[in-house]
Specification:
The chain is built from 13 helices and 16 strands. The chain is α/β, with parallel strands linked by helices. It folds into 2 domains: 149 residues, Alpha-Beta Complex (Aspartate Aminotransferase, domain 1), CATH 3.90.1150.10; 248 residues, Type I PLP-dependent aspartate aminotransferase-like (Major domain) (Aspartate Aminotransferase, domain 2, 3-Layer(aba) Sandwich). The strands form 4 sheets. The protein has a 7-stranded mixed β-sheet with strand order 4-12-11-10-7-5-6, sandwiched between helices. The protein has a 4-stranded mixed β-sheet with strand order 1-2-3-15. Strand 1 and strand 2 form a beta hairpin. 44% of the residues are buried.
Length: 420
């Protein structure tokens, strides 16, 4: 079927993400969404196995979120947040503080996940400076990690296996270590912090599972170890919950599985239920108090233009409404069971080295990087939108995905892997 005119005429002017423009296949033209499905220009429907990079946790076009957006756009789509206030943002901040454990009470809004991580890094640096501690200008992050594509966040992604090796040496090198999964790696991390702790402002980790670095899980005890070592060496602990937050791993926030509070947590992705860009860096009381001063120079001098956009905050408040009744947890358990059962036969596939699930995340890992574009096309032929990355084919569907659509997704993976 021929491409729509808007696609052919606009294609020479659109720079697409994560692909070599010269050789990439044309993108699939989407004209509408509904529930767990993408409706294409030619009338085909694809079950979305990724929930648009795991944002649309409640499914597309949820009527409660749509109603909130319609009401908010009539009243006030946007005002600047410098010197002005509005109810959607203040109510959202209060609600997030109430949902997060402990004294994670101070919410700084932005638009994207990468920017939220940059803000968390900036907070950590200035926290040390405001307390009169000099020299703590670096960060510790972990192999297999991914925290964003902006310049500073690239420096705390995996420097070898990640997407950003081309930029090695452009920005200051950070301290990269192995996650402390056992006594030996814990001792190694302790030694690194003992030797270089005076340089390190904070360490950053994706709790329970490292997402874009390969969907690599780790047990909750790893987070408890990081909390102990952070306290021992006087560095802040930052949890990047942009992927894991809002139910994806089975608890509302991944940190809850370990009973651990970071000093700063970053949130985005599913925050608005997959409708509008919004993110937050949320700090504990002692971090915020380092900025509370009569000295103007101690303030956090940061303010994204669309910070706390009222329309996005209205969507986020509506999304939080949907989390309140607890149905999401039952849905995540249902999705998890379907992914585990449906993907398990893939262990017998050629080149498959592991099959794993965590909450509403299902992963088939191969022994070598997969051909992303070719596999995307093969999945689409089977009625599924699945975009692999690196060595993994993964599913992160909407929590509300019907059983029949979950079965279609896992069947498509089994067929492409060659076990059905």
């Amino acid at each position: 079927m021929s491409e729509p005119r808007w696609l052919t005429e606009g294609a020479p002017h659109v720079w697409r993400p994560y692909c070599q423009m010269k050789t990439a296949r044309p993108p699939l033209p989407v004209v509408a969404t509904r529930g767990s499905r993408l409706i294409l220009e030619d009338g085909r429907e694809l079950v979305d196995g990724l929930a648009s990079w795991w944002t649309a946790c409640h499914g597309y076009n949820h009527p409660h979120i749509a109603d909130a957006l319609r009401a908010q756009i009539e009243a006030m789509p946007h005002v600047m947040f410098g010197g002005l206030a509005h109810e959607p943002a203040y109510r959202l901040a209060q609600r997030l503080a109430g949902l997060l454990p402990g004294d994670l009470d101070h919410v700084f809004f932005a638009e994207s996940g990468s920017v939220a991580v940059e803000i968390a890094m900036k907070m950590a640096l200035q926290y040390q400076l405001n307390r009169g501690v000099s020299g703590r200008t670096r960060f510790l992050a972990f192999r297999g990690g991914y925290h964003g594509d902006t310049l500073a966040t690239m420096t705390v992604c995996d420097p070898e296996e990640g997407m950003h090796s081309l930029f090695a040496g452009v920005m200051p090198a950070q301290v990269i270590a192995d996650l402390p999964r056992d006594a030996a790696s814990e001792a190694a991390l302790d030694a690194v912090l003992a030797a270089r702790g005076s340089e390190i402002a904070a360490m950053l980790v994706e709790p329970l599972i490292q997402g874009a670095g390969g969907m690599l899980p780790h047990p909750p005890e790893v987070l408890r170890t990081l909390r102990r070592l952070a306290d021992k060496h006087g560095v802040l602990l930052v949890f990047d919950e942009i992927f894991t937050g809002f139910g994806r791993t089975g608890s509302l926030f991944a940190m809850q599985a370990a009973g651990v509070e970071p000093d700063i947590v970053t949130l985005s992705k599913a925050l608005t239920g997959g409708t509008l860009p919004l993110s937050a860096a949320v700090a504990r009381r002692h971090v915020f108090e380092a900025f509370w001063s009569d000295d103007p120079g101690a303030a956090l001098m940061h303010g994204p233009t669309y910070m706390a956009n009222p329309l996005a905050c209205a969507a986020a408040n509506a999304s939080l409404d949907l989390f309140e009744d607890g149905a999401w947890a039952r849905d995540v358990a249902r999705v998890s069971a379907a992914l585990a059962e449906g993907l398990e036969p893939c262990r017998q596939g050629a080149g498959v080295v592991d099959v794993r699930t965590l909450g509403a995340i299902g992963v088939v890992e191969f022994d070598a990087p997969v051909a992303v574009s070719d596999l995307c096309a093969r999945f689409a032929e089977r009625g599924a939108w699945i975009r692999p990355m690196g060595k993994v084919v993964y599913l992160t569907p909407a929590f509300t995905t019907p059983d029949a659509d979950l079965a279609l997704l896992t069947h498509a993976v089994r067929q492409v892997v060659g076990v059905d």
